[in-house]
Amino acid sequence: MTTPPDTAPHETAPAAVRVALVDDQQLVRAGFRMVIDSQPDLEVTLEAGDGAQALRLLADHRVDVVLMDVRMPHLDGLSATAQLTARPDAPRIIVLTTFDLDEYVLEAIRSGASGFLLKDAPPEEMLAAIRTVHRGDAVIAPSSTRRLLEHLVTALPADQAAPQRDALADLTDREREVLVLMARGRSNTEIATDLFVAEATVKTHVGRILAKLGARDRVQAVVTAYEAGLVRPGS
């Protein structure tokens, strides 16, 4: 008796997250590539040694997430980030940094970067940051991002808060509550649990917060919350 062929449709594996590495140190890129390419859901599809080269290559190659160094020759990571995020369908950008780049990092976030990654972060934190930023719904989650935000905002000039407080004026009490939890690194699921509401409701609140603040993503919204004094470092 002949067994009929299997005619059931085969499931297609989801496409891997495409990652670009932009760093002038080849050994750094090689180390990152080795870690990233070891994961079935991630792959490095592009490398560049400076911001100018990255802009040229990314004009013709689509990627999902860019790991962007700050200090590079020809074109630094800040300028490259600003130009990339101004493009339609821009990739999400994670800034590679250390604590001694305070003023540069905050500028990168204002330019549209979606998070930070410390260069000495353990491999699992780097992988988690890439996946988190790619999802777009919890970009504050990596611990380095929150620590850096708190570190940065401590040094902000006193007059910085006034215009940011005005930006929060249109938020409802519930939206302010959600924004505070976002700044504490809570995911949508965790916020829903904290507030005893459905996750879909949280997503609606987050969308309204971003729209009212004119923020590209959660990181920029949280920067505004810190600058306005709604959230204090260590709270």
Automatic annotation (TrEMBL):
Residues with the 4-aspartylphosphate modification: D69
Entry-linked InterPro entries: CheY-like_superfamily (IPR011006), NreC/VraR/RcsB-like_REC (IPR058245), Sig_transdc_resp-reg_C-effctor (IPR016032), Sig_transdc_resp-reg_receiver (IPR001789), Tscrpt_reg_LuxR_C (IPR000792), WalR-like (IPR039420)
Domain Response regulatory residue range list: 18-134
Keywords: DNA-binding, Phosphoprotein, Transcription, Transcription regulation
The HTH luxR-type domain, residue ranges: 164-229
Protein name from the UniProt record: Response regulator transcription factor
Natural source organism: Isoptericola hypogeus
